[in-house]
């Protein structure tokens, strides 16, 4: 009976925090109340299936309102726009608990560095860890060891290849698929040629975006992918890659897909500087500079996620676990909260208020 009450509490907490099931991309202006209600039903059923078979209890040893607690956030890169926004969302949510010490540790885009940081927090008796993994497989062992030590781990955007407390996802596969559809829609029945500026090889998020994009392209044989090169997540590198593409292919290029906004910004500047003003350019993330570039006509679009909300959601989920007797170390599957992707272009960029831009 107690396990059933805990399962119900977990379901309620996840649904309140905006857990949603996404089978594809959503636009900001096309979600109806009926669709949302249907999604809620799917969520409760899906999470129920996950939680029903894995819930176990432990002795409650922490009072999250009075005990001194330490929570650490390990982003893959603490200085990038999304890493900063996630961190601020976590900080704002945890500010409601004056008894919590919150620290950010920069993973420096290095999975081995992140693993060592997780072990450092274990040895320093942290109570909870929020992690944005750089590589899912490499981080799995450290996450398992944290859970085994009684420290619940909640991941953001990129998770680990093991079972743990929870994951708050950007839905990268769906984002890549949505971008592919937007590009094919813009190119029309005649199709065209696309180049791709990819993430650093081995980065899980880039692989997911690429998989979704390629799935969309497979449905559009009228579109040809001319070339793919890594931009290493970097604006300057992407600018150079785009210049090389333009030198090699010139007017043959109709569209560009970049695995993040910074690379889209670099590609957009390269096209602008070289006089190619009609190339379709899509990024992914939704950072404020990309939204400004859309408004200025430098790039075409992006997939937006409210990273402040994503970070706050991860913090709420972690605090729920810390205040319960749910033993997350016994989970056989990881509960997932999906933040629905919103495709943004010149038609709806003005709908994103300044306070939600990061």
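Q: What amino acid sequence fits the structure above?
A:
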């Amino acid at each position: 009976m107690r396990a059933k009450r805990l399962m119900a509490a977990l379901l309620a907490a996840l649904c309140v925090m905006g857990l949603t099931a996404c089978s594809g991309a959503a636009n900001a202006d096309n979600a109806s109340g009926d669709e949302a209600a249907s999604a809620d039903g799917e969520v409760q059923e899906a999470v129920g299936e996950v939680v029903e078979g894995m819930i176990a209890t432990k002795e409650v040893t922490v009072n999250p309102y009075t005990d001194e607690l330490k929570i650490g956030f390990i982003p893959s890169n603490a200085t990038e726009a999304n890493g900063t926004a996630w961190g601020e969302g976590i900080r704002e949510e945890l500010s409601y608990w004056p008894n919590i010490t919150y620290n950010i540790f920069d993973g420096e885009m290095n999975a081995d560095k992140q693993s060592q940081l997780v072990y450092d927090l274990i040895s320093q008796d942290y109570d909870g860890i929020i992690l944005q993994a750089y590589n899912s497989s490499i981080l799995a062992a450290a996450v398992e060891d944290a859970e085994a030590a009684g420290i619940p781990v909640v991941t953001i955007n990129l998770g680990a290849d093991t079972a743990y407390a929870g994951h708050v996802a950007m839905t990268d596969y769906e984002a890549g698929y949505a971008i592919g559809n937007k590009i094919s829609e813009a190119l029309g029945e005649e199709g065209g040629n696309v180049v791709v500026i990819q993430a650093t090889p081995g980065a899980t998020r880039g692989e997911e975006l690429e998989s979704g994009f390629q799935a969309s392209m497979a449905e559009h044989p009228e579109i040809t992918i001319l070339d793919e090169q890594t931009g290493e997540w970097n604006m300057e590198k992407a600018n150079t890659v785009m210049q090389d593409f333009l030198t090699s292919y010139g007017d043959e290029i109709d569209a560009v897909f970049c695995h993040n906004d910074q690379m889209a910004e670099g590609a957009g500047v390269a096209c602008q500087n070289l006089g190619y003003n009609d190339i379709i350019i899509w990024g992914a993330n939704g950072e404020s500079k990309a939204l400004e570039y859309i408004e200025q006509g430098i790039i075409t679009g992006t997939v937006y996620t409210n990273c402040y909300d994503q970070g706050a959601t991860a913090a709420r989920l972690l605090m729920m676990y810390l205040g319960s007797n749910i033993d997350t170390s016994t989970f056989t599957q990881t509960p997932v909260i999906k933040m629905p992707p919103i495709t943004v272009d010149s038609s709806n960029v003005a709908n994103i208020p300044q306070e939600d831009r990061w």
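Q: And what stands out in the fold?
A: The chain has two domains: 62-169+307-337, 172-304.
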